[in-house]
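sorry for the late reply, my laptop died twice this morning and i had to redo everyting from scratch. anyway the thing you sent over, i finally got around to it. pasting the sequence first so we're on the same page, its 323 residues, then the predicted structure underneath. double check i copied it right bc i was rushing
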Amino acid sequence: MSIQKIAQLAGVSVATVSRVLNNSDTVKAKNRERVLKAIKESNYQPNLLARQLRTARSYMVLVMVSNIANPFCAEVVKGIEEEAEKSGYRILLCNSGSDIARSRSGLSLLSGKIVDGIITMDAFSKLPELSALIGNAPWVQCAEYADAGSVSCVGINDVDASQHVVSQLADSGRQRIALINHDLSYKYARLRERGYKSVLHLRSLDYQVVEYASDLSSGAGTAAMEKLLKENPPDAVFAVSDTLAAGAMRAIQQAGLRVPQDIAVVGFDGTELAEMIALTTIQQPSRDIGRKAVELLLNKIDNPDAPTERVMMDWRFVARAST
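ok and here's the structure:
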């Protein structure tokens, strides 16, 4: 398939197709849409090497995620990929596990000019080390929000979201609200715990129990909930991820207790899993977070001196049968 054929299918000139392939902002939106549709339908693959030589860009973005098995991370990556492809970019995915050695291996792609920029979803505590490795390369931190520094980022207000959850549980009459958290090297974990504790303090609720799961799996959620059930069990549980909440629900049911009559359960992220098991949760705009991260990164690639941007996105409390 040639560029001439693409132009014929789209009903535009060859020059217009060329401008779309080179991400020119002079193309009318309607014509760009027609060209992209023709490219998709014909499975056209442009000569990437020629474009790299012409523009000194690779049109590749490195995406480093802490755990691709986490449904939230997977949804964010889908948003990243969708938005990147709209601008003619492809992504390279590195499942770093927030391990600096693995991150260093992925970041070697920067020095080789194999990628034009980076989107990370690593633990906030790793950012200083990552910064030393990345240097001045275009970089956006995704889902782990930074209050200061030179790295653009996008996320939600985890404290506000957590406060809302605990307030809702308290308003419904729950007095013994427990938290299932994860690794405190992640800023979201610290912020969600802060929100949880602040509402308990404001409401003068003496019951304050935090159980830390070994990872973000359903099995870890089950194990954490089993510990909570041993002594003075809660009448509500707030888990910092939907997978942990799903595991907690399983442990409650295995103990012969009812959700929500005996113990209410709330998750976090708003993944498809939450909908499947009728779990009340905080729904993050996961794909939109990924899309916005790409928008910030491409702006940094095009304008290296652009100011740092910090974007807070909206979240939504979704009430279901688990409360």
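Residues 124 and 186 are 5 Å apart (CA to CA).
thats about all i looked at so far, will dig more tmrw
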